[in-house]
Each structure stands twice: as C-alpha cells, then as structure tokens.
Amino acid sequence: MPRFYRWRSNVLQTPLLALVTAVCGLTALLVSLVERKGRLQHRIARIWARCGVWSSLSRVKVEGEENLSKHRVAVYAPNHTSYMDIPVIFAVLPFQFRILARKQLWQWPFIGWYLQRSGQMPIDIANPHATLSSLGGAVKTLRGGMPLVVFPEGGRTSDGELRPFQSGAAYLAIRAQVPLVPIALKGVYDLLPIHTHHFYPGELTVQIGEPIETKGMSVRQTGELTERLRGAIEEMMEKPARAEAETPVS
Fold it and tell me: Is residue 128 scored above 60 in pLDDT?
C-alpha cells in the first residue's frame, strides 16, 4: 500500500496540486494589480486551499467552530505539523486574515509571490532585529483590525509531537490586547509528514479552542500565556475526535 500511495502522489496528486498552485498564484498576482485590500486574493487562496485538500483525498472536519465568531480580531495559533497545515487553515477559517510565517517561504515560486502581494508577514528568526521589526508590524496589523495566524512552534514537527513553543503568538496577542485562540490540527502530520513528499490520505480534524483573553495582561506575562496556549493545544490533541464533527469542509 505505501508503494501505491507514492505512485499516486507522484503521478496524480502532486502534479495536480502544482497546477492548481500555479493557476491560483498567477490569478492572485493579476488580481493584486487592481485590488489592494486583499479580499479577492484571499478568496482565491481559499479556492487553492480547498482544491489542495481535495487533491490530497482527505476530508476536513471542524470542531469548536463557534469559537471563531466570539471575537472580530484575534491571534489564531495552530500547531505546525505539515506543509498541508496552511491549505487546511485557509480552507477552514471563514474570514480574511494574515499569516506570520518564516521568511524562507517567500523564496518559493508562486507561493512566495502570493505571500508578498497579499500582505502576509515574513519573519526572519535568525535575525533578532528583523524579528522585532516583523512583530511590530504584526501588532499594527492586529490593531488595524486584521486577524493573524501564527504557528507558535516556529517550524514543523518531525515526529507528530508538539515542539517547544516560541513566545511570538502570545507576545502579539498581549501587545495588541486581542484574544489568543488555540487551534489543534489532527491528522495533517500523517497526511504529509516532514520526511516525505507523498500523500497518505485520512481524516483531518481542526479543533478550535476557547479564546484566551489578554486584556490587562502585560508583556511580562508572555511566558505564562505561552504555557497556557501550549497546554490548551496539548489537551485538545489528546482528546479523540468527535464521532460527528460540526462542519465538514470537503
């Protein structure tokens, strides 16, 4: 069966995803020339994401969807398991947002162009001065009314387990005085593990946790909030998925 998965990925799924990425990326670039607010580009990104999930032959279900509507602006913090995390997040979140992501992604053809033209926010972890500048820009984005998605682990897990959390997501939420929303991605690591380029389809679950309020908190409590965030995601990861999830995405 693993040989069949590799064959299907190489012959069908990867070429299809590459084609969809190229078409949507080019379309988003053209749209960005006439539409500056990013709404149409975000819609195109959602089409790309749903096509990507569909081409992986997986089904996404959402739990805790009511937590997405409790606040207009928040920092959404999912665990980072796979390159498919971003398509899954775009497919699930029903509103426009920006991503704070590693600068290396901006070097990818089409994906990097889309990230740049659509206002996503690169962060250079290796450069402390650039990191501070990126975080300052992200705070302004939040205060301007745009939600952010931040992967607090800073990189993909190599074994499916949670990595140590960095403080960026908590810091941004406190500085902007907006809630921090934990998100647990389940099954996405098994779909496309870090050590392979082949798809192993299965059931994907996105569990949206209860928002953590930050009003009145100071940056000195960043470490405390980071621990609360990790604990919330860890708790959700340990819970089995519901027999009937609330919202099927694909």
Answer: no
